[in-house]
Specification:
Strand content: 25-35%
Number of helices: 18
Radius of gyration: 28 Å
Shape: elongated
Largest sheet: 17 strands, mixed
Distance between the termini: 76 Å
Number of strands: 31
Length: 692
Amino acid sequence: MSPAPVIIAIDGRSGAGKTTLAIELAARLREHHKVSLFHLEDIYPGWNGLAAGIERYAATVLAPLRRGEAAHWVSWDWERHYDGDTRLTPPAEIVLVEGVGAAAAAAMPFLDAVIWADSPDQDRRTRALARDGENYRPYWDQWAGQEDEWLAADDVPSRADVRVLNLADGAAPAEVLQALQYLPALSPVLLPELSARRGLQLTAERLDAAPDAARLFELLYGRSPNAVWLDSSLAEGGAGEPNRPGGAGAERSRFSILADDGGSFGQSVRHRSGRTRVSIGNSTVQTDGGFFRWLDGVWGRRALRAPEGYPCEFTLGWLGYLGYELKRETGGSNVEAATPDACLIFAGRAVVLDHRERTAWLLALDAPDAGDWLATARAAVLAADRGLEPEAGGSGGVGHPGGTAPALDFSARDTEAAYKAKIAAAQYEITEGNSYEVCLTTALTAGAPAGELDPWQAYLALRRRNPAPFASFLRLSDLTVASTSPERFLRISADGAMRAEPIKGTRRRADDAARDEGLRRELESSPKDRAENIMIVDLLRNDLSHFAVPGSVSVSRLCAIESYATVHQMVSTIDARLRPGMPRAEAVAACFPAGSMTGAPKVSTMAILDRLEAAPRGVYSGAIGYFSLSGATDLAVAIRTLVAAAGTDRTTLSLGVGGAITADSSPQEEYEEIRTKAFGVLSALGAEFPRG
């Protein structure tokens, strides 16, 4: 008796290309494995035998193979319309079974993975008749009726691990093989494929050019459904404390990253309530389990080193956002949001702009299409550098190109009275000893008819009005995130250096220079703001210590003031060093969500916030950034962040705002603080804070 094989079913309706997919997938797997292939069409007892064929297949093929025994089964003679000879399918390391019903309910106890192949109805009929000739034509409707009846009672597509839209363009086998590597049940057997995935080669090209980043993004990714721009829009030399040469702001504002999920390695992932869905071309794979566990499986080990002379930690990898509701995995309660809990793309090619050196780096993983992309990216960089066309959007509004800006009328989830009542409730929790500081938030929402609001134009307006070191524009299918965040959540360098830079304490800028300086000094000397900031510093020191080298946690900057276009902020810096061998995804989880967005102690305060806010935060209060193949990550706190969700008829906008509540907080001052924090985004959109 042989060891039990790994059995993978490829199911789908007739003509979906299952046979070709199975043959080509088997050929790829045979590079590292012994593979057996079984076709269900050899066992169906006639044109009306779908149900009987599934029973035969489960009992005489799958059952013995699952035991590690050879399967002896009776074939069907399609010419004589009667039972044919007895055939044998040996138990190889991997067995692929394909055909209509391959993943039927009766087969499921024997299967390790299920692939469902889709194809447009007309394409299926054409393919099936071309393959089986005129013998099939009289029976097409009869067979299709059996498929309808079977699927009405047995929803195989809904439980498939992998789904592929098979367009017969040759892409499906490679995409499906990549998708299978995400399934935990197949990880042991697919170790050779997983190792090959980690043996990547990086091509890097340096250009002495300083292109207009917005124009470059539009040239390269204007038509990409999934694209990310991590935009250090706070250029050196501008107004404000962060931009003094050599300062913290200069370090944070050095690099911008532009990428999409195109090309041979492109992928996208969405996680929602314990289920992760990865899309690879026209294939998708679903796995159950926590997001940070999934992240640990795809990131954290140094798969690529930075090329010689390349100064940035990003060497391609995952980019996107982690939503606040991932707190369910880090001690918080389970709250469901309207938006995915995490959205990332995998970029196998990208442009990195070094604003200090005024250079552009083109990065691409070695692939057949890398050369063409490098040529396209090179031409785009040079075109954007020469200023052949003005920055996209010019100085117009936030409406669709060439149109007028829509009037955005925001409404607040909490009225002024309701928000102040929640402040009082938070202070009661503090006096009861349940928290020291409660970071209370609310949300402003607005809507516009579909097509009237252009999120790209809105983001360009935001970055002009309120440039920031951690600004970002994420276009993720039907969801757009436009952020002008000034706050770093967490950086882990490839060498293990960790840094958090929480912001607590805000004052609005004034037009009058003397008044503005007075507001800055008031913030700098405020006992309340310093107390809020120091409490979060202590919380983050504790978060970092869980995975840090003992004694390495230090505070290199405490309650410093940074000035941005619309606000002064109080910022601190906490440094540590990651213990060698520690899982980096778990180190991120230990700090998530940002303490500056929860309060302290974190777990008990998150429970208080759930009761007081009574609504999910979604993207807001989460993190935006990258997870690099170098093992590095750099994440910003998702504040000053506009989220646009496109629907069939309307686009819905959401802006989260909040502030830290302590025992001596003034409800009126706290309410004015959220108005101040909303001002930068609302003013860029030509909107006002809602009354009442």
